[in-house]
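Q: Sequence in, structure out?
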Amino acid sequence: MAKCQLLLLFLVFLLLAAHAKSCHPDDLRALQGFAGNLGGGGALLRAAWSGASCCGWEGVGCDGGRGRVTVLRLPGYGLSGPVPGASLGGLAQLEELFLGSNSFTGSLPTSLFSLVGLQKLSFESNQLTGQLSTHLQELKNLTLLDLSVNRFSGRLPDVFHDLTSLIHLSMHSNGFSGSLPPSLSSLLSLRELNLENNSLSGPIARVNFSGMPLLASVDFSTNNLSGSLPVSLADCSALKSLTLANNQLVGTIPSWIGELDNLRCLDISNNSLVGEVPKGLTCLKCLATADRSVGMAFTNMPLYVKRNRRVLQQQPNVLSGSNNTVRSGGGNVLSGDNNTVISGNNNTLSGTNNTVVSGSNNVLTGSHHVVSGSNNVVSDTSHVVNGSSNTVSGRNNMVTGNNNTVSGSNHVVSGNNKVITGG
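A: Exactly. Output:
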């Protein structure tokens, strides 16, 4: 009797397992039609998708009870050709569609927008073209939309007031043009907004960020956006990354940026911003020292924020103007005022109010320099020099260290082995 009961339970288990992997016949036909219309890796997919238990197929997920397909994930499968819209439209209960990193061509089919239950949609890194349809507004349940790295063109449709569940919106690296759609302001749940590397133009203030309290990342870089930095960004207290580089923004750098306590990455380089950097900006504790190259002065901003927004690591560099920063390297030439060399050797500085934080064999001319290191040559007036084996000339210098050679008058000198000439 016990053996019969075990056998019965085993048979029930097999039946349940088989039922769990079976899928609705409409979804089975839709998936077969989808695979049958694909080029490239479609042949491999058709071979892998055999039988009628499509809920057990690779990349397919179903709900637990009715056998309806809710998930289709096939990123990087080498699939090519137009998107089989009619077949995808047959997956009436689909909630997640991830077809990124393939080679789909053509435009997004209209039938795709009939999948009103979609919550996540990604076609990133394909070869899709054409304009984005206004039928996008039918997908009211979307929380993620990623169409980045394709070849879309034309204006972004002003339909986002119907997509208020969006959390992640990424359309970077396309050919979208025209102005920003004001309906982006309606995305109350949005946390990530990336429209980098398009041809968008017009005032950036067409988007009102005040109603986006959860927004953590904004990237509008490498477009043609104009106007001043929108004050509505000041209401985005959760903002961690703000990247607006390579646009046509004008005006001053507003003081409210310094009040974004969670900001970790700020890049507003290569615009037409003028004026001083607000003092509050240098006090943001979460901004760490950058490890970037030319033009990225406001990425992970250090305490050495400078007005010209040029921070260099490559060497040797030649800089003119004011408020430039060299983080490291050697053989740099700086002229102008208020320049900073954080570390490095064999730098030449002229002008006023320059700083060498560390390094050796630097040559400074002008006035009001601050120098530390060794074997530096400093001339003119009112310098502060720390280190050893430095040569200092001029007046009113303060020199500490050993083996320094000092000439001129009215110096304050401490240390040993000094040679002093003058009054």
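Residues 131-289 form a domain with the Leucine-rich repeat, LRR (right-handed beta-alpha superhelix) fold (CATH 3.80.10.10).
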